[in-house]
Amino acid sequence: MTKKRILCFGDSNTWGFSPADGHRQEKRWTRSLDLDAEILEEGLNSRNAMCKDPHMPEKCGFDAWKMMLMSHKPLDAVVLMLGTNDLKSTYHCSARYIANGLREYVREWMDPTLYEGFTQPKLLVVCPILLGENLPELEGEGGGFDAYSLQQSRLLTREIHQALEPYPVTILDAQDYAAASSLDGLHMDAENHRKLAAAISGSLRRMLEED
Description:
Layout: E1 4-10, H1 12-15, E2 37-43, H2 61-71, E3 77-81, H3 95-109, E4 122-127, H4 135-139, H5 147-164, E5 170-173, H6 190-209
Parallel strand pairs: 1-2, 1-3, 3-4, 4-5
Helix pairs in contact: 2-3, 3-5
């Protein structure tokens, strides 16, 4: 039987950025999924959901989204986890704006012309973990996240659920299973990658069994 193919599209917490030293963790969640499947990793440090940094425009995930869906087909499932970097103070985005941006990802995913005869993959949207309460203090006055970032981080999961409620996707709340390390208030350590992997594995297993 052919293995299922699962695309994981996200930012540094998908790439596996270590809060301790910035290196790529071997035991990141994408490599800890308890599934007999081919896992296609598409994590990129500092990737935004919708915001575009003029210095690094390639970090806007939306510009790459359709290409990833087409280049990796056939796919059985896609895991989308973005939104954390749009909370940076330089963008000053509301949680609702970010959630509405993720809704555009869903609308693109629903376009049947992307798959050209292949089955449309199932979509699991993972609401990001909360920013650490100590993040603004760690970043300092010139840092990338501030008190407003924290406030909108707390609202983001609710807003994503509201924005995606009409669409045929599965949503998982990462904050229920994992948290940012106190070392940097932003990235997960190995233990939290393990916890998130277990939750995502369970969701994907149920989704794929529906076929």
